[in-house]
Amino acid sequence: MAVLPLYNTIILPESKIWLRTSFYKERTGKAPVSGERVSLLALKKDQTRAQWTDDSFYPIGAAGILGEIDSSGFMSIDVLNRVNVEEAAILADRSVSMTVSRRADTGDLDADDARSRTTSVKDRILTFARGQQWEPMLRAFAARWDTLWSIAAAMSPWLSISNEEKYALLAEDSLSKRFDETERILLEGLEMADVTSEAQTAQKEDHEKLYRESAIRKQIEYLQKQLDEMHPENVTEIRRLEMKLEDSGMNETALREGRKVLNRLKGEGANSPETGMLTDWLDLLTGLPWKKEAARDIILDDARRALDAEHSGLDKVKTRILQQIAVMRLKGRQSGSILCFVGAPGTGKTSIGESIAKALGRKYVRVSLGGARDEADIRGHRRTYIGAMPGRIIDGIHKCGASNPVMVLDEVDKLASSYNGDPASALLEVLDPEQNFSFTDHYLNVPFDLSDVFFICTANTLDTIPEPLLNRMEVISFRGYTPLEKHEIARAHLLPKALKAAGIPEETLNLTDEALDLVIEDYTREAGVRGLKKRMDQICRAAAIQLVEQPEAKIEITGENLAQYMDINPVHHKRVPAKAKPGIVTGLAWTPSGGDILYIQTLLTKGAGKITVTGQLGDVMKESAQIAMTLVKSLFPDRADAFSENDLHIHVPDGATPKDGPSAGITLTCALASLVSGTQIPPDVAMTGEVSLQGDVNPIGGLPEKLMAAQRAGVTRVFIPADNLDDLKDVAQEVKNALEIIPVSTVSEVLARLSISAQESLDKAV
Ligand code: ADP
Question: Which atom in ligand 1 lies closest to the alpha carbon of residue 347?
Fold first, then answer.
């Protein structure tokens, strides 16, 4: 008899098992013959003929008889009854030899009950099959199902139960339990199939709905567009925003938020207070330059020409800017390091930013940071506030309408901070290339990419710029202009522009060199050229009146008639006094608006060693005064009691900044030395330098501005710290020509040069 081992198949008496003829041959090693008997064994594991051993089979099997064998390669086996497998052995040809005995069922089945339950399972299967592609095939099969066992056998491959569970049905002795269990498995299988198919249909419906929805939306949009084009006058505000929103090219996050707000707007009545707010917000959102501006090819020569066209001089600055442009070009980027232009007002910091934009062919936008106190100034207010606004950065981007402008952040040194968060830290995020590709303004509330913006900061002084911010920037100094440079700037730029603005042809008005120099010398007092520009404008306005009255006139402005064209009186520059007095020395100061001279005045009065310091510098000066006094006492031992027997008054007139205070150290020391020794120091000798208690002269800042101020005031000789010699390369040649500059390293050197004798003990004491 053939032995057929089966895996994962439900084998039950009174059922039919269908299989391929080839499979039968392969498993049994015999060709099937209708009507022959066969033993069915249940395999424990999914093994092939070559793999099975004596142990591969479960102890209960079944006896069967071969049924129809059709020509299309299928055959059936009618399962008859269960058997106990007593002994199974694998023979050399891999066939199985065994002894079996019949295994009886226990209990009975209520035939009617069994029939009706079987019918109900069958019906459910047919219902499930309804409308499926394979329904006809299933129906043909189902016609032959007369027992629940046949159904189970036929469904066997589709039931998601394990091999053990399938075998457990065969091993169940109780007929009624076997029936119940089989029914349960079938019904569960059906439930599962139902749920899966429901989920699949639902999913399919969802897809279809989505697809339909988007198709309808597209249709509506298309029709609406056509309508709008036919009647542009009827386009409503909401529709206008909607069109802008969809066309803006914004990122997904922004678009989603925009649609959300638009839907809210649609829900509001025209008179609702929300309407204005929502519209404003949508206007901003849709007005931002979401589409990225492509990088232009930059030609260095053109850039150089553009920079030269509007600004004279500033060679160092221009070179640095061109370097940056070259680097950007090589790296294919639209932005590079953050530049910080530092210098006195009117030295061209902001306006060269505008020239850079021209040189790069990009938009220019200026954002003033002066007085920004809250984080909200930079980053905007949250939309929940009434009157909420975007911050200055997003506002600037909105105004210029390009994603890659040259943005000048003016007056970073004037950022204040308040309890409402620090604007500087918000600015840090704006300037940080790691973060600024997704800068989120509180008002806008969706990220905007600032990474293509070319940022330039301007400041008058570095002292008040927060350290972390300063670290991120590359500082480029703008020094003040010399009178000669101012003259050139006025000739080349300021005067032609002023004439043009006033509508005066260039040949009609002649401002002589002498008159121009007078304007520079007597009517302005500044490191930059802002005042000079105003004077040029004033001259042209005054000339305009004259030209209206006498259209044919040719106007000649000379030194003599200049005052007629001016609306202010000449300013009086501080000039060094002609007469010297002991205890008074000329010092040099740096201020954010350029350099200045100052006189340190000292006086001894009868008293008992009290020191009074007046003037602007306060504490810093008190310290310097102490050091100066100690130094002078040690340099002039026999005059030391002058300080204990008298009161000392030191006055430093306004002008210098506290930070610059220590650089008056040498001046103060010389003033005291002059006072106690009774030696006069000529007023046209000026000095600057910090002093140490050892009597060394240490370096100071702002040398170019200080020397320029000295020259302007009529100083002829200047003592500077030897360590500052390097800075002389930044000093205009005409200033260097006009001054005798003496580098010094110690206080004694200065005193010796000024012939202030400190008696023999001078060097020994120091
Ligand atoms: P800042 O930003 O340094 O305060 P601005 O850039 O506003 O100065 O300059 C003030 C005015 O002076 C502008 O009209 C500018 O064109 C002019 N200006 C400054 N420097 C130069 C220069 N080197 N050449 C030509 N014009 C200049």
Answer: 3
